Amino acid sequence: MDQLRSFLSVAERGSFKEAAEAEFRSPPLVTQRIKKLEKTLGVDLLERSRGKGAALTEAGKQFLVVVSQMLRRFDLSVAVAKQPGRVRLGLPSDAFARLRQLLETGVTAFLPQLQLSTVTDLSTHLLRDFERLELDVVIFRALEGTLQRHASRPLYSEPLCWVAAREIHIDENCLVPLATFRDGNLFRTAAIDSLSLLGRPWRLACVSAEVHIVQAAATAGMGVAVLPCSLVPDGTVVLEEKRHGFPPLPDVHLSIAAHGDVNPLFEQVADLLVQHWGEPRAAA
After folding, report:
1. Which segments constitute the HTH lysR-type domain (predicted)?
2. Rounded Cα–Cα distance for residues 74 and 114 (Å)
3. Is the confidence at residue 104, as pLDDT, over 90?
């Protein structure tokens, strides 16, 4: 295990000296560990050069992926053993709002041993942290047709819509003003990709991390927003392809995944959230 951690440290820093300092070990000891590991594997993992540190070989790059995942899973298993009731849940902010009552009070009634911590973020960030084993259970969105790398269960799906103020008029030869979310948001991605495929130019008129700001901007006529149909605010209209010249949009799917192979409690939490999700209501 020490050899693997030393290899990971050198690979991340590109330096035996910096890796040794981070591990509070001497550089010769770290070097010795790497040499023993390479001898065991029968391949060179690092290319060494004076003054330039250490660079991964092709074998080293492939081994790094395996080692990183393995050590994260080991560390997570240790954490589970020390805190068997801890569950880290990641979900979009609107999903938290929908499940708020359950998360704040009801969940411990079903799972008394649970120590739940939650984080809200963009689905792309949540999935990244789930892959890094920094989250145990994740509720996330994906656009229709997106390849999923995780075993997950669907919660619901709904169409995306172009939304604008009733009185807005956008000439086909003008830039489409977008009221949208920050970079990385799936609704923003769907809007820009659809317009780009149509060859229609666009500009950012309003950017926010908050759905109510994007809704307000669309209602005020500041720009056109892409939102799930359940989130279309009063005072706006849904722009149609034939009538308004806006391109079709993919459906968006909300799903849940859990590292149940590490701790059965993670899967129990996912089961509970699925059971209490119910029929779709207003959600982002």
Report:
1. 1-57
2. 21
3. no
d(CA 117, CA 130): 14
CA distance 45 to 56: 6
Q: Which two tokens stand for residue 88?
A: 């880290």
- Are 195 and 265 in contact by the 8 Å Cβ rule? The answer is no
Domains in the chain: ranges and CATH: 1-82 (1.10.10.10), 86-157+252-277 (3.40.190.10), 159-250 (3.40.190.10)
For residue 108, count CB atoms less than 10 angstroms from its CB and return exposed for 0-12, middle for 13-18, buried for 19 or more: middle
Q: Alpha helix locations (H) across 42-185?
A: 58-82, 93-101, 107-110, 123-131
pLDDT for res 121? 92
Those residues whose C-beta lies under 8 Å from the C-beta of residue 182, and which sit 6 or more positions away, are: 122, 188, 207, 208, 209
Kindly state the average pLDDT of the residues 102-129.
Answer: 83
Residues 197-213: b if buried by 16+ CB within 10 A, e if exposed: eeebebeebbbbeebee
